[in-house]
Amino acid sequence: MKSEEIMNTGIADVVIHIDQKLDPEQTDKLEQDFLERDGVISADFNPDNPHLVVLKFDPKVISSRDLIDIRRFAGYHGELIGF
Asked: How many CB atoms are located within 10 Å of the residue 53 CB?
């Protein structure tokens, strides 16, 4: 989806940096934790940098702050690093 399409649909995307080094099992679990929340459209970890996840979401349904909280409740430390 192109950025102008995202703007027109009201869908936002963010990058979250996870401080811990995650193995494939952990990234799969955290991805599922994100996707189980209403408003989260996709959660994509970078295979070369598994501490980075790009999330597409509907900000009318879930906030970027809520996305950070999901990561915290899963037991990981990290921060929002970009929109």
From this structure: 24
